[in-house]
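Justification of computing resources. Each target in the renewal requires a structure prediction run like the one illustrated here; the chain below, 73 residues long, is used simply to show the kind of job we budget for.
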Amino acid sequence: MTATARPEPTTESGHVEPIFVQFEDLDSMGLLHNARYAFVLERALTAFWDDRGYSFRNGVLGHADASVGVAEF
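Resulting structure tokens:
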């Protein structure tokens, strides 16, 4: 059995941010549970902005505009 390379995700517009999905995020059929969608989205958004210098580590903002509040999902 030979290992095959995983294809790179593509998109025509926007951005694809690969993240690790936890086992508890899945339902009994192995699909992303609808109640966990917001948590997975938040992980992806955090990784996206962290890569661009908008981080929060050791109580210090990585950029003056790094603090974000979500009003509604």
